[in-house]
Amino acid sequence: MELRLYGIKLEEIEKGADLPSIICETVDRDIGGLKDGDIIVIASKVISKAKGYTISKPAPSTKAKILSLISGKPPQLAEAIMRNSKRVLAVIPIKNILKDSNFPRDFTDNPKEALKLLNMEGSILLTETPDGRVAADAGIDMSNAPMISSHIHRMTQIWRQQK
User: 72 and 36: one domain?
Assistant: First the structure.
């Protein structure tokens, strides 16, 4: 048995996008199509964007402020994650888990950027999305939070200085 992995680069995904068509067209173009027995893995971010799970500038609730203290995430981001989740299943302290590992040196071509992101985040919220999927941070990252990306980044810097 032979195992081959292919990554494909999709176009920008908008709310309501026809993911099966987009994926099949991209696979046809980039790797010559699907074969019997192929398995497709789709990042939760792609599905979240197609379903319209995007955010603007939510005001943090008391629960979000508590989750923020537990997770190390800025309160607005914690609120956005909560609004796009049925529930938070776990807070995973990824920074602490990886601190004594070879991450990111052995896992990325850009260790400096990976460390920067890891130091900004600190933890991952494992969530159940409204459609029942399990996703990190409800599938939210700055690609589906464009209106608050710079705002969250600035708030993160200010918030971390106050801690």
Answer: no
